């Protein structure tokens, strides 16, 4: 099925099951421990691998002494670059997943010890000795900034002149540190060979990409690779591509001729797998005295390994507010840190932390309410291409609804003037913006002779509720109850879906199920002797007028099954497609210690049709919590001698806990976007983090009058200004 024009009325509009706050159908499996994650599969004759990682960031391996490890009890093999065989780079890999002789980053895999028990592998890994010839590395973005190369530049109008002529100006620089994905489940894989065919149980968000890259890295046909990823314990982008655990498990399993399990240690997750790059962002906003933006400039610097890509912090600035003169530049510095790559809302998550803080500063200089300033500068067309309008944009609705619900009119315009005992209390807000991406996605849907429906696709569920919304889609389309639907996910032998990432998973994969269900409805109607165009599906039956046939009867003894996929046309080029929101935050700042406590949060969002308000709300709550962490606590600390991250565990990388997160309220506007997909939906998983950090920062400033532009906002930075 091709989606090339706006969706008209279709069976999903009934909203009998879609749009309802529905419990996750896999929930009982998870809470009882019966959901099987990558490291939990019981594979006969399995052995264990422990990765040894590099302790330099740049240079060469001179020698690897594996003799003591090989003679240790239970050890079966030690894999290094000397005996691993040729390993290519996957399509999206920037660095080899096994070092040697060249070393490209601290924490790169240098060896794998394989033993008959985990304990034996761990003990023997400590016996591997590696001699290095280290090179000097560059680890600090600020030091590398002047040598960065411009990766992209988008200039419209005469920004420099317009900014210089603007009666009111903001020119401020903000910084964000390196961030870790810190998902609950570490990267893990079990590899097993049957002749020349590989089966890999792995924690991966994109099953087809995993099969593609494993085939390319190992130099085998893709059809010889089977990926299994039924449940994933979080990813946030850190599991978009296969990593060293998957590749080395496969290499080792081939050598020892037994299945091999590898689970990365928490420090290895932090240093061996990708992270979000630090940024330096200069915002220049020029406005008339009545608040109309005339010039928007956003320059951002970020770092990555050689051949990498920038964080993209200017993405939202290109389309968020109207202004005739604009400049967005992104610069990339080559650093010898662990690889940077996609993390929840790449670009926008940290870009919004800068531009929405700058908008708050501009509102103060203008003497205009921050909500009204954003409304005044809203746009319904692409500021860079005014002939291209938004498919649906109700940022103003989010702002108005949020201000009313939060009691924004009680905010004190003068910072530091509202107290609650020892606490200085302030309110802050920020807009939320995240682009809407859609990808082709396939599914197979069948009905058996008992009227049960089965949905099969390689889509993954990384904690987002994929099992449930796909079941809801099929149940809605075929007129059956939810408990009559079985969903099978996460295997590379299944039809290829969009996968989980980029906020595209839910909208795209449900559209793929929709496409298959359209074909299945036609087949069932024909089998029942009805005209497909007028047939109705309800109560487990197919209807024509007042006549009906049970689905199982129509399907017959062999059942009926249809596979199809959704393919998206050029609507994303004809229209700007994005999701919107508004965050409101109240904080308290201790007047003596500068401790910050978030007191309450509200987010209002416009993201098309919400397919399952319960799981969508959960996604937003988690994203808002991540935003609090980015604002107040999260920072990967770099060892300036070695080029790795020092705080490489969940004890010292400070994530928000229950005590840090107060009452959170999530509101979805009642809307649809028929230009997005047949589901008239959009993604929400990444929208919720965009803007939160700035809303917190703006609230802190309103509470105590100290503007911190270098995230995270820690006590020491506030005390210096109080």
Structure description:
With 722 residues, this protein is of the alpha+beta class. It has 18 helices and 28 strands. The strands form six sheets. Strands 4-6-2-13-10-11-12 form a seven-stranded mixed β-sheet, with helices on both faces. Strands 1-25-19-20-21 form a five-stranded mixed β-sheet. Helix 12 (466-478) runs parallel beside helix 13. The mean pLDDT is 98.
Topology (elements, then pairings):
Layout: E1 2-3, H1 27-31, E2 47-53, E3 59-65, H2 67-70, E4 75-79, E5 102-103, E6 109-115, H3 118-125, E7 129-134, H4 141-144, E8 149-156, H5 159-165, E9 168-176, E10 188-194, E11 197-202, H6 207-218, E12 225-228, H7 244-256, E13 260-263, H8 266-272, E14 279-287, E15 293-304, E16 325-334, H9 348-366, H10 370-376, H11 395-406, E17 419-420, E18 423-435, E19 441-447, E20 453-456, H12 466-478, E21 485-488, H13 505-527, E22 536-538, E23 541-544, E24 547-550, H14 551-555, E25 560-568, H15 571-574, E26 578-590, E27 596-606, H16 613-632, E28 663-668, H17 692-704, H18 715-719
Parallel strand pairs: 1-25, 2-13, 11-12, 15-16, 20-21, 27-28
Antiparallel strand pairs: 2-6, 3-5, 3-7, 4-6, 8-16, 9-14, 10-11, 10-13, 14-15, 17-18, 18-26, 19-20, 19-25, 22-23, 23-24, 26-27
Helix pairs in contact: 9-17, 12-13, 16-17
